[in-house]
């Protein structure tokens, strides 16, 4: 069956690539990686099949959250250049299919996690999906410029889930990993929103640069980077990691602070010329991958 765009134009029916796009694969990669690192950093061994199942469930749960986010925000996505070609606003899929896909994936991921891994990890997975869909997408996104600050908790759950899958408990280290991702989210997304703020303004999304202006946003980028860097380095002096992670955390966080300071002291208002903001956004992704990778490498050496 053909579907229609927001303006009524008939397009081709959805195929597997559209369902994959609903899962937000680029975001999914980071979510799955931090979940895997949480699992591998745990001080216990886990059966490979159980470990694979846990990561599969994290993947499916995050994909479900992405699909339900796009189902609810199809009208917003249609108003922004960078999201207008997603399956729903582009008319390649109807909203009901996206809803069923998201609910089905989410339900299956939670049930499988609970039955094959443990109830604690399934409960945290459930909380992460519901938080992203109900708290961030439905409640916060259209109502407050603090949407990213509070909503950032949704993306911070995977390390907790991975650790809980391996140990069936929560300890201080995974809590610090949660804090790192939680505090990383505002500077990461605000760097993006600074150079695409027109998109958010056109869609009526109250992102901080739209509501409070670029100067306030730049100050907040640096302000949130400071506790993020402290949380990233903290596991080393607390004796929870070795020098491999500790040195990596110091160096990586130092570069993050430098780039954040450049953003803070930049007064450029032309979005096309916001080089420091683009550099910070790109680096922030690399930062999280390398930092969590260093944690796993450190744990393997210590083991």
From TrEMBL:
Entry superkingdom: Bacteria
EC number of the protein: 2.5.1.141
Enzyme class per UniProt: transferase
Compartments reported by the entry: Cell membrane
Segments crossing the lipid bilayer: 27-46, 52-72, 98-116, 122-140, 147-166, 172-196, 217-236, 242-259, 280-297
Pfam families linked to this entry: UbiA
Keyword RNA-binding: no
Record keywords: Cell membrane, Heme biosynthesis, Membrane, Transferase, Transmembrane, Transmembrane helix
An annotated GO BP: heme O biosynthetic process
Catalyzed reactions: heme b + (2E,6E)-farnesyl diphosphate + H2O = Fe(II)-heme o + diphosphate
GO molecular function: protoheme IX farnesyltransferase activity
Main location: membrane
Entry membrane topology: Multi-pass membrane protein
GO cellular component annotations of the record: plasma membrane
Pathways per UniProt: Porphyrin-containing compound metabolism; heme O biosynthesis; heme O from protoheme: step 1/1
UniProt key word Transmembrane helix: yes
InterPro entries xref list: Protohaem_IX_farnesylTrfase, UbiA_prenyltransferase, UbiA_prenylTrfase_CS, UbiA_sf
Family listed: Belongs to the UbiA prenyltransferase family. Protoheme IX farnesyltransferase subfamily.
Role this protein plays: Converts heme B (protoheme IX) to heme O by substitution of the vinyl group on carbon 2 of heme B porphyrin ring with a hydroxyethyl farnesyl side group.
More details: Carbon 2 of the heme B porphyrin ring is defined according to the Fischer nomenclature.
HAMAP family: CyoE_CtaB
Entry-linked PANTHER family: 4-HYDROXYBENZOATE SOLANESYLTRANSFERASE (PTHR43448:SF7), PROTOHEME IX FARNESYLTRANSFERASE, MITOCHONDRIAL (PTHR43448)
Name of protein: Protoheme IX farnesyltransferase
Species of origin: Edaphosphingomonas laterariae
Lineage: Bacteria, Pseudomonadati, Pseudomonadota, Alphaproteobacteria, Sphingomonadales
């Amino acid at each position: 069956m053909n579907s229609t765009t927001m303006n009524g134009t008939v397009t081709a029916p959805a195929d597997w690539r559209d369902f994959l796009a609903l899962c937000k694969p680029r975001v999914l990669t980071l979510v799955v990686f931090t979940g895997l690192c949480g699992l591998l950093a745990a001080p216990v061994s886990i059966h490979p099949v159980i470990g694979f199942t846990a990561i599969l469930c994290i993947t499916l749960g995050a994909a479900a959250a992405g699909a339900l986010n796009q189902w609810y925000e199809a009208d917003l996505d249609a108003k922004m250049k960078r999201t207008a070609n997603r399956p729903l606003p582009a008319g390649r899929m109807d909203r009901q299919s996206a809803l069923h896909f998201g609910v089905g994936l989410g339900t299956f991921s939670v049930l499988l996690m609970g039955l094959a891994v443990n109830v604690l990890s399934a409960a945290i997975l459930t909380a992460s999906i519901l938080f992203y869909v109900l708290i961030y997408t439905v409640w916060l996104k259209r109502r407050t410029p603090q949407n990213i600050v509070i909503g950032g908790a949704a993306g911070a759950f995977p390390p907790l889930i991975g650790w809980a899958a391996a140990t069936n408990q929560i300890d201080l280290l995974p809590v610090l990993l949660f804090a790192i991702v939680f505090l990383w989210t505002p500077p990461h997304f605000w760097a993006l929103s600074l150079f695409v703020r027109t998109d958010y303004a056109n869609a009526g999304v109250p992102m901080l640069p739209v509501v409070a202006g670029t100067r306030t946003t730049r100050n907040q980028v640096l302000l949130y980077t400071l506790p993020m860097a402290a949380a990233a380095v903290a596991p080393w002096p607390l004796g929870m990691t070795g020098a491999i992670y500790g040195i990596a955390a110091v160096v990586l966080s130092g570069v993050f602070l430098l780039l954040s300071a450049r953003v803070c002291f930049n007064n450029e208002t032309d979005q096309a010329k916001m080089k420091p903001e683009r550099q910070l956004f790109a680096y922030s992704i690399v930062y999280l991958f390398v930092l969590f990778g260093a944690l796993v490498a450190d744990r393997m050496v210590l083991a």
